[in-house]
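Annotated sample (chain length 547).
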Amino acid sequence: MDSPSHFDHTSVRGFRTLKDLYENTEELLLVEDEPKNYKEASSDQKWIEAMKVELDSINRNNTWKLTTLPKGHKAIGLKWVFKTKRDANGNIIKHKARLVAKGYIQEHGIDFEEVFAPVARMETIRLLLAIAANNKWEVHHLDVKSAFLHGDLKEEVYVTQPEGFIKRQDNGKVYRLIKALYGLRQAPRAWNIKLDNTLKSLDFKKCALEQAIYTKKSKDSILLIGVYVDDLIITGTPKKEIDKFKAQMEEKFEMSDLGLLAYYLGIEVTQTNGDISIKQSAYASKILKEAGMIDCNETLIPMDPGTRLTKITEGTMVNSTEYRSLIGCLRYLLHTRPDLSYSVGLLSRFMQEPREQHMKAIRQVLRYVKGTKDHGITYKHNGGNKIHGYSDSSYGVNTQEGKGTTGIIFYYGESPISWSTQKQATVALSSCESEFIAATTVVTQSLWLKRLLSKLTHTQEEKITIQVDNKSAIALMKNPVFHGRSKHIDTKYHFIRECVEREDIQVEFVSGEYQKANILIKALLKIKFLTMRQLIGLKDLSHDAYD
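Output written by the structure step:
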């Protein structure tokens, strides 16, 4: 679910990353009279003040200098973007004006080169929170003000003077950018390079397995930093080291110290007595509001076991833009909701030409979300520090091509940190073969997770145990005598046998009723679904997760 291919983290026309795209979705749902252009904003004092604050910030950072446009160069236009910032409960925090470059007219090789900037995967953030909870560390949140204005530009880029603030005596002149502006294609990369150099100068080491995680270890302290654009989450021990890091960052950038992590990319985080819980209640409400289902009836399961969805050509076509938008919102909800992984994953296969039956199935998922808005995951103090995984597959269920579905879920101690539902790439000839293919998917993820955990905690790599509920598949992984039955299976799937022989992983049998990945591969009956939901570690956090 969280692999880089699922979300494009690079700059997107005027939005910085997934963070801004998330906030833009929020904008659709919490309607306020936000100006659409400078003309509308210029009649309201609070927006005029917001624009002045933005220009002050740009000038303070020495972002640009006024000059005459050289021959052969084009000036990129600027536009004002206005946003009402809110907290998790929808209360207005501030009115923000952002000066954005029209980066979509930039040409590769002329005014930009590389644009990619790494951000921390959500599963890495969950692992970071799980490690912090297990050690009873506090997790703090820092935000860099006007982060992109700090990134140094290598290319020669010119922009027009901002609307409403054109200097009369210099009419016709343009600004040459020394540092990046929001909206520029290379802005995320320029900022990331600046931050990377800053953290390295403070003796932090970049994690080779996750480019947006930095660690710093000494004899009696350890600090872990997770970076998502301009949001930094910091954990470690002792507390004075965290405070020292905050002070060092405030010397270099204009920072907002948001204290203990409470709200991060639409995820609500609660830290109580060393335990850390995560949920997306407010975001779930916004999805329901956008879909016009805030007052709908609740349902106990997201998909009925008898539901059979196919890419049919008959049936009424529905608005594909609306369908894709809902799928995108639900996929973001999966960051704290493994119970939705199968239903949302299955519905994601019909985005090209969705029909009424597919939209009806989405409505049932939304009705289920309505009744479980406050469900989430808790990472416990002393919950254990070992990673173990579960692998399962469904053989020929709900698919036209005969391809199975792989479900994998990993735990740090007692709580889930990584999960995914995927359609298998090849057709399996038996349930044993389907389980074998699924287990290979789990191995690649487990190797990455065990190495990542070793780097973050500065401990030795430990063998990860994978639980599989098919004895034939386990025998196939361990026993070359079975090779005659598996000679037709694609060579890449035999990678698992090598890992078992090298003792990188350990494969164990688990009975079906304790197979936690079962909820990720098919629609279950009501009682079975509710039992499995509790078993995987999802609970209602509405009153107090610690009652």
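Annotation: The first strand starts at residue 64 and ends at 67.
Annotation: The CA atoms of residues 332 and 506 lie 32 Å apart.
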